[in-house]
Amino acid sequence: MKLRALIAVATVVPLVSVGVVFVPMRANERWDAMTQWAERAEDAWEARDFRRAPATGPATDGNAFDHYEKAIASSRTRSDADRALLRDLRLHPDRVSAVEAASFESRWGATVARMRDGARCGEAMPKITWRHGFAAQPTELLPARDVANAAVVVARRLVAQGKTQEALETGLDAAQFAVDMQQSPVVIDQMIASALVTIVAAELFDETFLAALDAGQKAAASSAVAQLESRCVPGFRGQGDVLLLANSLKRSAASASPELESEVPERELTSWRYGWSKRWAMADGVMLLVDICSQLEREADLSWTPRQELLEAQRQRIRLSSNPALGAWEETISGCERTARIALAHVRLLRAALRLSMGESVESIQDPLGDGPFAVVRDGETVRVSSNGGTRLHPLSRSVQSR
């Protein structure tokens, strides 16, 4: 009996000793790797050149996001009656009285004007304070959406008044706003912006709007849309959120406040896999996400089938890691990817519609939710261009009267 006890002690003591030395050492290694990556990532963001040509008109001085913030803030302060008027003019204009419709400009005009001022700026650098981590406030969906919806109403009213050039410029400014918002490094902001891109491309630039444009305006719109498409986010971009996560962890460690760790049950974080070290588990999770996001961003232009295979491979890495800090990331990757690709499909369908209306070919325009060009079906003078990603309830297609 004594012999067995001695053997057990002789076995356990070295293991404990190794754990006492190895676990803190490994935890510190992963923590240092995370910290160093975060510093490099923040430096790379600050060094980026955010200048870009506006979709229409000469570039003006300043950062577009100074104006976008004011536009969204203005939208946020609109009354319920203002929002109801916006909704009715967009969806049911025939139900709005002439008096109410005439009040639209005084109630929403300044909001749209601020957005357009931002769209004309020569620089569009999203604003973010990295050191705040996830304490940084994301874009609010409803006020931002209402800015885009207000631009839809303004453009339609201008078309009805025969002011097609001003309507076109308003529409292109709204598209610039939406695409600029997509450049945010924050995933939720990108998803909101993708919804704005869809509103502008599919709803503002609808068939009725395009039919009102003359040949020169269509050519200008086609060129501007191609320029905007080149800046659309093609899929999931998550390194900004990973940087926010890393900085949240650093803030938590510096303040000795487990604000982020508290979101994950302690019994899960302190698992045998990480030697019961929260520090090791969280830092290791961050570095796995860094690698996953880097791979997904490098291969963002893959056609849909190989892209889906790559997405599933990266989601599988998250599942196999069994790291509780990564619980929500699997769904985040899938949701953001599809939202971005749907928005890009709408932009490319708009470009296809413009080209068809000018008698040009569209067979080379690739479907972001397919493995080749859009499907093109001709029925007399009507041409239907469709994405493989549409459904019966939510088709991704456009019909155009070809020349």
Which helices and strands, and how do they pair?
Elements: H1 2-47, E1 60-63, H2 64-76, H3 80-91, H4 98-102, H5 104-119, E2 121-123, H6 141-160, H7 164-182, H8 187-204, H9 207-212, H10 215-229, H11 239-255, H12 266-269, H13 278-298, H14 304-321, H15 329-357, E3 375-379, E4 382-386, E5 397-401
Parallel strand pairs: 1-2
Antiparallel strand pairs: 3-4, 4-5
Helix pairs in contact: 1-11, 1-13, 2-5, 2-6, 3-6, 5-6, 5-7, 6-7, 6-8, 7-8, 7-10, 8-15, 10-15, 11-13, 13-14, 14-15
Q: State the helical fraction.
A: 55-70%
Counting DSSP H or I runs of 4 or more residues, the number of helices is 15
Q: Which residue ranges are poorly predicted, with pLDDT under 50 across at least 5 consecutive positions?
A: 5-20, 259-270
Strands side by side in the biggest sheet: 3-4-5
Taking all residues together, what is the mean pLDDT? 89
The shape is globular
What about the largest sheet? 3 strands, antiparallel
Query: Topology as H/E string?
Result: HEHHHHEHHHHHHHHHHEEE
Gyration radius (Cα, Å) is: 26 Å
* Structural class computed from helices and strand pairing: mainly alpha
**Strands, total number:** 5
| Distance from first to last alpha carbon | 96 Å
Q: How many domains make up the coordinates?
A: 2
Beta-strand proportion: 5-15%
